[in-house]
Amino acid sequence: YDVSPSQELIALGIANVGGAFMQAFPVMNAFGRSAVNVEAGAKSPLSLMISAVSLVVILFAITPALFFLPKAVLSAVVLTAVAGLIDVKGAMHLWKTNRMDLFTMASAFFATLFLGVELGIIISAGTSLVIFIYLSTTPRVVRLGRVRGTVAYRPLEENSTHETVDPVRRTRILSFYGPVWFANAPKLKEEVLATAERYDVAGAAYAHRPWDAIILDCSNISFFDSTAITQLVEVHKYLMTVNIRFVLAHCNLVVIAAVTESAPDLQIFHTVHDAVIDCLNSSKKPINTLRSFFKSGAAVNRLSEAIKKREEEAKGDGLSDSD
């Protein structure tokens, strides 16, 4: 049966609150006893009731007979049962897939082993919090390219498939992973400005830039907070001064509402491919932006027809540097 951690914690909390009015000892789960129960073949919560009744019978009827039982024997029983809780295969799997989770697990294990349960819980919780803050403030920002012969876009540097991904000529496409909030908004601004300034050394002429537009793929962005919107507006204004277009693509409704309210001049496109087409055509007022999509019913038909036509002509549209 499935065990709900939240339900277990609620049950323990209610038991302790109720026991406080009856002069009872605080109760908590016992990993050793649970492990023995599982090793015995328990399959349902009924086994817990049987275990509790058996424990009461042993305490009142058999305790004198067990008085002289060496503690080493009891320890051997507990260690034999708890040994099954040590998941070596799980640790090896984390080593291959997610070493940060392995670090959290190792810190909890060794802190509990050498410092005790309370400090082990505190240290493991603190480690998890530090890792969460680190991942939230340093999100991944990757550069996208077009999969040859399609209208799909994939990371250029991290493409693990056999697809051929080509950079789009004169256009830089960035994808930001995670929500954008005050802690990581400077990271987004830094990446976009670094992209714009990389070929602006010592006041070099803008005409020598290898691209004319920067597209931010928002498909992995769940929301922008107020600080992030402010940073976005600043980036947009700066790029306008250096004649580089900055547009958003593939946004959800939350992002659309936030950007439309705070930055009405910032263009939003339905897909990355729509943004690429418009940037390459140097259109100042794209008819296939999401604002047009919501304002005009006729725009829906135009957008559908345009996307269908582009999908049919994707192999010969000349979007990539290699085409």
Please provide a written account of the structure.
- This protein has helices spanning 5-20, 31-39, 46-62, 71-82, 88-97, 99-115, 117-137, 185-197, 226-241, 253-262, 272-281, 290-295, 297-312; strands spanning 141-147, 153-155, 165-166, 170-176, 211-217, 245-249, 268-269.
- With 323 residues, the chain is an alpha/beta fold.
- The protein has 3 domains: 1-86, no CATH class; 91-137; 141-316, STAS domain (Transcription Regulator spoIIAA, 2-Layer Sandwich), CATH 3.30.750.24.
- Strands 1, 2, 3, 4, 5, 6 and 7 form a 7-stranded mixed beta sheet that branches.
- Helix 5 crosses helix 6, helix 6 packs antiparallel against helix 7 and helix 8 (185-197) packs parallel to helix 9.
- The longest helix has 21 residues, at 117-137.
- It is elongated.
- It comes from Bicosoecida sp. CB-2014.
What percentage of the residues does DSSP assign to strands (E)? 5-15%
Q: Tally of extended strands?
A: 7
- Percent of residues in helices comes to 40-55%
Query: What name does the CATH topology of the largest domain carry?
Result: Transcription Regulator spoIIAA
Under the CATH scheme, which class of the largest domain?
Alpha Beta
Name the CATH homologous superfamily of the largest domain.
STAS domain
How many structural domains in the coordinates? 3
Characterize the biggest β-sheet.
Answer: 7 strands, mixed
Low-pLDDT windows of residues: 199-208, 283-300
Quickly give the CATH architecture of the largest domain.
Answer: 2-Layer Sandwich
Provide the residue-averaged pLDDT.
79
Shape: elongated
Radius of gyration: 30 Å
SSE order, as H and E? HHHHHHHEEEEHEHEHEHHH
Number of helices: 13
Transmembrane segments: 9-28, 48-69, 76-95, 107-135
Organism: Bicosoecida sp. CB-2014
Domain STAS: 161-249
Membrane topology: Multi-pass membrane protein
